[in-house]
Design brief:
This protein is α/β, with parallel strands linked by helices and 321 residues long. It has helices at 42-50, 76-82, 104-115, 120-133, 150-162, 180-197, 208-214, 232-237, 242-249, 289-293, 309-319, and strands at residues 4-13, 16-26, 31-35, 57-66, 69-70, 87-90, 168-172, 200-205, 217-222, 225-231, 305-306. Bound molecules: adenosine-5'-triphosphate (ATP) and magnesium ion. It holds the Pfam family ABC_tran.
Length: 321
């Protein structure tokens, strides 16, 4: 049984359909990257999974099975018991999610006391351990968030998300607000933590480079839908969807001295209308007539999939010689 099994999830904000019939599974210990342009529905997906959507955001249909239990129909009181202990979230600009009027120590202790109470001395040890784990000197435990740098606050948010050793962590743009050096440091740090803690994660980012570095598989999201999922290496070597191909051209190849960054012309569609055909068709350099009229469903088979009429054609050509 997968740890997380998202089935036909649709999420709306009034008439805006931000997540559209998304299905995907996450295995125990796996990191699934979710990448896409601003407004593609990444955060909405992350918040829907944990049921932390703010109104008017609402799950319209679908199921989110966590270890076989549907979170969509789970009562808020039962969900609250699972948050932090089984599922935790590092929010987009998480460094601002820290409580400004409590010391770092207090924030760790509050989480521990609420869910897994333990003695004072053990708690002190635990806070020090958690800070060291993200390479922060434990003497900062008695500081307030505003006394620390952005990178330190973000690492503390990550340590907080890990303190009760949850099985699943949702990272929403955990490094986006930081400079490149700090970003790289945090990604390296996360890789080490993952080998110690064996958590599974949804790692959301609009930065394909970061996602490729940390994730086992990558889901590419466009206009509320997944258009392609592949193991990271394969996505980098042989992207199938024209949107993925275009995204890959938007960041420089570190192995090449040529820098040739191509933007993607056009803008994403208005999510308050549901149009026939492929949502990427108006911007696609390989568009065919059927792309404008025939929708196609994304199907994940053995952890991978692509929703493109053209990708389907090449498969057919391969199969029939
Ligand atoms: N509170 C809200 N009310 C109405 N529409 C919203 C709300 N929050 C998000 N949306 C819309 O839902 C769509 C998806 O937004 P979402 O924040 O999930 O995208 P994202 O991929 O996380 O983008 P970003 O990279 O900018 O964080 C967007 O079109 C956005 O305008
Ligand atoms: Mg977002």
């Amino acid at each position: 049984m997968p740890l997380l099994d998202i089935q036909h999830l649709t999420v709306t904000y009034g008439n805006v359909q931000a997540v559209r019939d998304v299905s995907v599974t996450l295995e125990t210990g796996e990191i699934l990257g979710v990448v896409g342009e601003s407004g593609s529905g990444k955060s909405t997906l992350g918040y829907a999974v944990t049921k932390l959507l703010r109104p008017p955001g609402a799950i319209q249909s679908g199921r989110v099975l966590f270890e076989g239990t549907d979170l969509v129909s789970t009562l808020e009181s039962d969900l609250r018991k699972k948050r932090w202990t089984e599922i935790s979230v590092v929010m987009q600009s998480g460094m601002n999610a820290l409580n400004p009027v409590a010391t770092i120590r207090r924030q760790f202790e509050d989480a521990i006391i609420a869910h897994q109470p333990t003695g004072q001395s053990r708690m002190k040890e635990r806070v020090a351990e958690m800070l060291k784990m993200v390479n922060i000197d434990p003497r900062y435990a008695d500081n307030y968030p505003h006394e620390l740098s952005g990178g330190m606050k973000q690492r503390i948010s990550i340590a907080l998300a890990l303190v009760l050793e949850p099985k699943l962590i949702i990272f929403d743009e955990p490094t986006t607000a930081l400079d490149v050096v700090v970003q790289r440091f945090i990604v390296q740090n996360l890789k080490t933590l993952r080998s110690q803690y064996h958590f599974s994660a949804l790692f959301i980012s609009h930065d394909l480079g970061t996602v490729l570095e940390i994730a086992d598989r990558v889901a590419v999201m466009y206009a509320g839908k997944f258009v392609e999922i592949q193991p990271s290496g394969q996505l980098l070597r042989a992207p199938k969807h024209p949107y993925t191909q275009a995204l890959l051209q938007c960041f420089p190849d570190p192995r090449s001295d040529q820098i040739n960054i191509v933007g993607i012309p056009g803008t994403p569609p208005d999510l308050s209308v549901v149009q026939p055909g492929c949502a990427f068709a108006p911007r696609c350099s390989q568009v065919m007539t059927r792309c404008l009229t025939e929708s196609l469903a994304f199907v994940e088979v053995a952890g991978a999939g692509v929703a493109c009429h053209r990708a389907g054609l090449t498969e057919e050509v391969k199969q029939h010689g």
